[in-house]
């Protein structure tokens, strides 16, 4: 930030995709404290990185918990799967946020991004592990082969981007925030399946965290504001301890140190195990394009088609190396995009720091457990604001769209179908084959409808007013 303040008046240095920098006119309406290339001090950068981990942790560990249950794993193997997921998420978050490789095989968009395992692969995983008898080795082999498909598809992103005008991207960004809101309110209530789901105590905890973040974000200094979510979550966590909502027995039972092992459970590269994951990877491509556009919007970075393709390629590469570590496919998380406008921090260095911290936590199961036992209501208070910010970013994008009849229909249809599928997924659960996969997510369903209508509905020429 200090470096930005030294630039000549009237110009600023923003990242130009490809590593060089270009002078551009600064946006007076920018609300960011730390832009993409800014590097906060090491202490603040570490705190902000940990803030990203807290908001993503539940999503990162949830899938390996489910997969471990499908595979019939005990406590030791389940703990290893969680550590492997943290390691995979950390490595791929660094790759996505930094960007590596030559132009023809650039991996990573170079924007602050947190990566993690995706629930979209849980259904196919159950089919491979149990129904098809592939076990955990078949799951790893199938996801690795499917990841190759995503890497190949990344080279076809550029010609597809012409079908993503603002009316489509704005709708998709809004959907991302809106479809995540039920998740946030499940957290507010205490988490799905919790015995005290929806209790007044959980609602009170979430409300206190929510209000604390709002106040710190709005009135806090340039040091306090970006860390508002972290401060709110830590305060809520501490508040829950005397209330008896935190069980430290799990921390005591966890190991202090654990080493990752490549292919600990083996791998089976049988093509039949890859087929169930095809629809999951097609959905991932669609959703990652939307997430990249969302992150571009909230970081005030103009992305090229190549940048978005690089982001999709990072998903594919991550989904290939993740299973080798004992994790599942690693995809771009949309949750953390909401942190950027809320905390006014778009620094890629913070996301890279979060990746390093995730890797460190993978070697320290006791510390990872300390985070995992955080009451869900605490995270819910932050989640409502984060996901709401994503939706608001989409509304901001749509505000630049000319809402004629055509565009109004496109937005209405995309939001209607996307929210409908998100709120009532059982309606489309009976769709056959690949359609079931493509419409299993509210984001992908709404995106597909918006894309198709944008193609088939011709634009109406604007009529010039005639002189009287």
Automatic annotation (TrEMBL):
InterPro entries: NCS2 (IPR006043), Xan_ur_permease (IPR006042). The keyword Membrane applies. It is found in: Membrane. It comes from the Bacteria. GO terms for molecular function: xanthine transmembrane transporter activity. The chain crosses the membrane at residues 42-67, 73-95, 107-129, 135-156, 163-185, 197-216, 228-246, 273-292, 349-367, 373-395, 407-425, 437-457. It is a multi-pass membrane protein. Residues 1-26 are annotated as: Disordered. Its main location: membrane. Keywords: Membrane, Transmembrane, Transmembrane helix, Transport. The keyword Transcription regulation does not apply. GO terms for cellular component: plasma membrane. Belongs to the nucleobase:cation symporter-2 (NCS2) (TC 2.A.40) family. This is Nucleobase:cation symporter-2, NCS2 family. It comes from Carnobacterium viridans.
């Amino acid at each position: 930030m200090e470096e930005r303040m030294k630039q000549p008046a009237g110009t600023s240095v923003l990242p130009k995709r490809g590593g060089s920098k270009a002078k551009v006119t600064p946006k007076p309406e920018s609300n960011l404290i730390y832009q993409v290339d800014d590097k906060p001090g090491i202490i603040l950068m570490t705190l902000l990185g940990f803030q990203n981990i807290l908001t993503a942790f539940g999503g990162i560990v949830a899938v390996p918990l489910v997969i471990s249950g499908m595979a019939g794993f005990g406590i030791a193997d389940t703990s290893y799967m969680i550590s492997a997921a943290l390691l995979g998420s950390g490595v791929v978050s660094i790759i996505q946020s930094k960007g590596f490789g030559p132009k023809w095989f650039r991996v990573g968009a170079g924007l602050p991004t947190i990566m993690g395992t995706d629930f979209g692969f849980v259904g196919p995983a159950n089919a491979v592990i149990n129904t098809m008898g592939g076990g955990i080795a078949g799951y790893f082999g199938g996801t690795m082969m499917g990841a190759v498909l995503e890497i190949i598809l990344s080279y076809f992103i550029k010609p597809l981007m012409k079908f993503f005008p603002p009316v489509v991207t704005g709708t998709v960004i809004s959907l991302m925030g809106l479809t995540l809101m039920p998740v946030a309110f499940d957290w507010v209530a205490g988490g799905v399946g919790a015995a005290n789901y929806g209790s007044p105590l959980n609602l009170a905890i979430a409300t206190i965290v929510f209000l604390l973040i709002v106040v710190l974000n709005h009135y806090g200094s340039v040091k306090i504001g970006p860390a508002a979510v972290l401060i709110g979550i830590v305060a809520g966590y501490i508040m829950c301890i005397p209330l008896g909502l935190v069980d430290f027995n799990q921390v005591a039972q966890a190991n202090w140190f654990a080493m990752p092992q490549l292919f600990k459970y083996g791998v089976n590269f049988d093509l039949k195990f890859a087929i169930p994951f095809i629809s999951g990877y097609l959905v991932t491509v669609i959703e990652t394009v939307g997430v990249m556009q969302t992150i571009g919007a909230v970081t005030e970075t103009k992305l090229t088609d190549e940048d978005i393709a690089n982001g999709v390629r990072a998903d594919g590469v991550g989904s290939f190396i993740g299973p080798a570590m004992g994790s599942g496919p690693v995809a771009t998380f949309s949750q953390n995009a909401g942190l950027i406008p809320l905390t006014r921090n778009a620094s890629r260095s913070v996301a890279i720091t979060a990746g390093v911290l995730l890797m460190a936590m993978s070697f320290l199961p006791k510390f990872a457990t300390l985070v995992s036992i955080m009451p869900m209501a605490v995270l819910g208070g932050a989640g409502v604001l984060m996901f709401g910010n994503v939706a608001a970013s989409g509304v901001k994008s749509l505000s630049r769209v000319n809402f004629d009849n055509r565009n109004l229909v496109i937005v209405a249809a995309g939001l209607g179908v996307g929210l409908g599928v998100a709120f009532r997924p059982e309606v489309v659960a009976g769709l056959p084959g690949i359609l079931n996969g493509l419409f299993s997510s509210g984001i992908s369903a709404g995106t597909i409808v918006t894309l198709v209508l944008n193609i088939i509905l011709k634009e109406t020429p604007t009529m010039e007013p005639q002189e009287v």
